[in-house]
Predict the 3D structure of the following.
Amino acid sequence: MKALVYDGPRDVRIKDVPDPGIENPNDAVIRVTSTNICGSDLHMYEGRTPMEYGRVLGHENLGEVVELGEGVEHVRRGDRVCLPFNVCCGHCGNCERGNTAFCLNVDSDTPGGAYGFAGMGSYSGGQAEYLRVPWADANCLVLPEDAVEKENDYVMLADIFPTGYHATELADVQPGESVAVYGAGPVGLMAAYSAYLRGASEVMIVDRHPDRLKLAEAIGATAIDDSKSSPVDAILERTNGIGADKGCECVGFHAHDPRGREHPESTMNRLVSSVKVTGTLGVVGAFLPQDPGAEGELAQHGKLPFDMGEFWFKGQRMGTGQANVKAYNRFLRELIHRDRAKPSFLVSHELSLLQAPSAYENFDQRLDGWTKVILKP
Ligand code: NAD
Ligand code: ZN
């Protein structure tokens, strides 16, 4: 089959690789029909995480079940399924409690696995014609009869819609509250969208890309361009000097100033300053224990000059980490099915798998208008 293979920093290619097959009785194989490029793929693409050469990328996958191991009970051949980016077993101590992003049975040195991801097991990615899905009963979210018609919405259930929602869950967003979101990439936009689904009265979203800020405004958020003025001042001004009730970090260790210089601590510290005393922060932007490519010595070891004093003094709380996609994907699927949510509003490009290498290049440069790419193998 054809697949997108990581050949080194900023070098991804379409290659012929062996077709996946059933390896364990709980496996399924799907024919991939939609697979997104994610901001997290860019960390690997840029060589910022230790991705093995020759591996297939792609963790935001949707497709049709074409093969089943004899132990699979609840999924049928022909089902259209969306797969959480986290591979999970469904029955370990963490999965049982809903923390499927930290599954203890994945083939990884650390808890938690994902398809085509550095440091998260050896699972192959779905930017390919076919994909092996381990523990298929636990991992396949079966889609309803409008699966094909709303495929571009449902594929967002693999990662960014639940991840944006997770930011608002970690931040404990309640009806009527105001929410500050740093980052208007796909994850930040989904966090803003989710905050409104949860009844937020105002969402203020900070970025500097006009196209992304425009999308934020289209869903009713207040766009704040941090290349023009201080985002903290703007948020304090809009909240009578009090700060937003809740805050979401959706940028991660790549946080930089508008001129491109990296300051991995900048969004965290600005978020602390933008949120009121006793407010809660949800941090889903990725921060890693090691980042050898970072500029400063501290950052190379995943350490940040964090404003602990202000954070403590304000009595704030914080939740962090990978999204437990399975904790949310069922009810978010229902919102799509019942026309109460349409996350495909941020899709900018639908391309063939063969166009993936150039799509990576354009998305990596965050060229104007490249918000979210869906590949159709
Ligand atoms: P993205 O790179 O497309 O978007 C990031 C946005 O942040 C960009 O629009 C950029 O302009 C903006 N930004 C950079 N520095 C900023 C600053 N100082 N202030 C405000 N905005 C700034 O990525 P994405 O797909 O939206 O993902 C965002 C982050 O979420 C990444 O770190 C990604 O790895 C992470 N992620 C986490 C999970 C999870 O499970 N926790 C899942 C998916 C993605
Ligand atoms: Zn992703």
The chain has a mean pLDDT of 97. Residues 186-197 form the longest helix (12 residues). The chain is about 25% helix and 25% strand. The chain has two domains: 2-159+324-376, 163-320.
